[in-house]
């Protein structure tokens, strides 16, 4: 994968389900994968459950640019989904987000 001129953006999101909501959060995340993959500028969108830790999830996303990521986050469906998600996760959405920017050796 070659980075775009502005550099692609990678997002890692760690989420932990509220006690008793593990299956609900997994179903919620599962339903969000395909629509997110179809958003403009999406390179990769993968959901993972942490082995040996039921109810702990990691979402790995790559976007062509920060603008594509911002458009994804501002999509009407996301405004509808965020309040639902807050009822399923332990903590805030922001607490689990890490934005990564690629870099490569000069040679």
UniProtKB/TrEMBL annotation:
Spans traversing the lipid bilayer: none
- Flavoprotein as a keyword of this entry, yes or no, is no
- Molecular-function GO terms, alphabetical: monooxygenase activity
Q: What is the lineage of its organism?
A: Bacteria, Bacillati, Actinomycetota, Actinomycetes, Kitasatosporales
Specify the ABM domain's residue ranges: 9-97
Q: Which UniProt keywords apply?
A: Monooxygenase, Oxidoreductase
Task: Tell me what this protein is called.
Answer: Antibiotic biosynthesis monooxygenase
The family database entries (InterPro entries) matched by this protein are listed as: ABM_dom (IPR007138), AI-2_Isomerase_LsrG (IPR050744), Dimeric_a/b-barrel (IPR011008)
PANTHER family (alphabetical):
ABM DOMAIN-CONTAINING PROTEIN, QUINOL MONOOXYGENASE YGIN-RELATED
Q: What is the top-level taxon of the source organism? A: Bacteria
Keyword Oxidoreductase appears in the UniProt entry: yes
PROSITE patterns in the record, alphabetically?
A: ABM (PS51725)
